[in-house]
Specification:
Radius of gyration: 18 Å
Number of helices: 4
Largest sheet: none
Structural class: mainly alpha
Order of helices and strands: HHHH
Number of strands: 0
Distance between the termini: 38 Å
Helix content: 55-70%
Bound molecules: zinc ion
Shape: elongated
Strand content: under 5%
């Protein structure tokens, strides 16, 4: 009985966990959608008065928002399809505590590290 293994075993999500994660994902989706709307509204407002630096910041913010939104929507799809919480690379379970911090995570901590190392 090795219930002390660190990363992958203690991953079972309870129904309450799922509800909390789903709510978190919904909130993030709403937030990112509003952010994107706001950014595009800003982009349309008097563009000639906006400096290049300002535009660059906005473009970066929008790119991040779009990326997170894509991840969040994919995570919600996975929830609906009952595939939530499995790593896309190794197919192993993603640790519960990781999902609690990053509900839209596609990879377990190990695979994420590998991906970042090769970026
Ligand atoms: Zn993995």
């Amino acid at each position: 009985m090795n219930h002390q293994t660190i990363d992958d075993r203690n991953t079972a999500l309870t129904i309450e966990d799922f509800a909390a994660l789903r709510e978190n994902l919904h909130e993030q989706r709403l937030f990112r959608r509003e952010q994107l709307q706001q950014l595009s509204a800003e982009a349309n407002a008097v563009p000639e008065r906006q400096g290049a630096a300002h535009i660059e910041v906005r473009v970066r913010l929008a790119a991040t928002a779009r990326m997170v939104l894509t991840d969040v929507e994919a995570a919600l799809d996975r929830m609906d399809q009952g595939r939530y919480g499995a790593c896309h690379l190794c197919r192993g379970p993603i640790a519960r505590e990781r999902l609690m911090i990053v509900p839209q995570a596609r990879y377990c901590a190990r695979c994420q590290q590998v991906r970042e190392a090769y970026r």
